[in-house]
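Researcher: Here's a chain I'd like modeled. Treat it as a single chain, no partners, no ligands.
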Amino acid sequence: MKLVSATVGPFRSINSSQVVEIDRDVTVLVGMNEAGKTVFLKALHKAQDALGLEKFNPTDDYPRKDYTSYMKRHQEAPETAVALIYQLDDKEVDEINARFNTSIEKGFKFSVSFLYNNTKNITLTVDQAPVISAMALTSGLSTDAAAAIKKATSLRSVVEELSDIDYTDADGEFLNGLKARIEKTSWENVVQYEVWTYVSKLLPKFLYFSDYDLLPGKLNLKDLATRVANAKADPHNALKQVQPKHQAVLALLRMAEVDIDDFSGSSGYEELKAKVEAVSISLTDQVLEFWKQNEDLEVEVDIRSDVTDEAPFNDGPNLYLRIKNRRHRGVTTPFDQRSRGFIWFFSFLVWFDSVQQQLDPAGTPLHKQLILLLDEPGLALHALAQADFLRYIDALADDHQVIYTTHSPFMVHSNRLHQVRVVEDKAAIGTVISDNISGSDARTIFPLQAALGWNLAQNLFITTRNLLVEGPSELAYLQTVSALVQADGGNGLPDNITIVPVGGLNNVATFVSLLGANGLELAVLHDYSGKPEQKLDGLIQQRLLAQKSVFNASQFRDLENLGHNSVPSDIEDLFDVALYLDYFNKVYAKALGDTPILESDLPEGDRIVHRIERALITKKINVRPTGGFNHYAVAAAFSTSPPEHLSEETLTRFSALFKAISSAV
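Model: Modeled as a single isolated chain. Structure tokens:
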């Protein structure tokens, strides 16, 4: 089962409901500080906390500007804080159909809404007709009973139909069983209740983790035992007694199968320390599978008393965590004074494994029910170490959906922008969450731009084959269409060719010089104005570029004359006019209002982008203050939400382009 959508709000800074599509593997929330990323995670966590500790509280959670008016109706009509939509996998669908004789289809979805009074509303639709049909075939039933069952429209009406016949002992036994089944629920649709009862046990629950849950360097165990006892005596104030750092140490002790009472009982020092050290060694090994910055680190655990320390550490045994660095002859330092990135890794593994044990004391794989909510993970890591952490997240995603927040460009896969959700705090509106990257504030999407820039910079001098293009629009179109061509069974652009936007033809000479000096193979794809480009001709004459490696968009526009210059063309002219207009109208829907640009509105001309700009002038429409329109905004929309299919003509044009580039480089 997967979470496919979450609707959050009103909740804290989220004033109006925000519908967020959740990726089946990893969802990344990108936004500035205080935009509301953590608020979204907290809402999910309160809805389905893995440990069952979290509750919605209108005083803390309802947007303050509307709190007073809401509380007047809270008792009678509590609002929804979070609504989650889940999708069953094919195996689960088959199991339900086999168990209940239903006929639900593959991809079955249902929703669970969580209200501010901490109750749930279930929206789940199951047709009872197949179940009733299967009932009529029950072995041993009389002909009259089978006929009566077939007349029913629901399980409840089956009882009514059977009451009108003279039934046999077998019929009576069947009827009694059905009545007992119906009495278990007040739901009108009994089958829906039964299916819900089944799937509710499979619902993934949320595990939230942030920097506040880190293990401390030392903790007094007597004080911890007192806090745990006070929390049990006063559950309403438990969180005040047992804080995140205490929870983290309890998690470590639980993993080592050490009870807090053992420290005042008969268990010896060596036995206790051996158990805790064994777990620490195991977890250190797990961390080092992904921690490649310094593989000479390990965690040491000690349990001892120190009457000379300050309170409360001078009363009873203390648990000490230290990091040993073998690279520096085994020097140890307190756990909380060393690399915060290593501390985060280790603390998360302790907490994560502990929660799994609490959910699953018998050892069965119930841990697959977790969805991990990671708040600013890897924030303290070096930029290259964050790449290691992304590998760790991918490993987690093999078994668990992961939702994490970040504003670091190094915590975003530039080739997985479909996983990104942009979070913005808008004046008078509050937190807004969207997958529309092109329509977001420049400051918000800066990490995404930086991620793309870093990806280009990282690959620029380490790939043998490079295709220079004028700007990021070409990059977006070529990568996306290449994937579509391959999906259609054709040959896209080879993976070993790096597309490098150079920022216009004026920069081509610089890039050719830089790349050529490294002995790399180059090709150039540029827009065609209708006449030769002197800068490119000069590079060819200087033998910095080969003539066969220079291409322009017009050479792949005319299907009857592929490979030869035709009319002035941009890469946008390789698409059908209707398709490009569709994306343009979607991107600028707000500015265009009820007057989208139609193909009939376009003046005569060769280049679609120029024709649209002239149409905007004619219709006196401004989609941006400087005039014209942002070509990249349309390209970004195409890249993030590509069409399912391209026309044969478009596929032919791009296939010819990819073939020519592959041959030249």
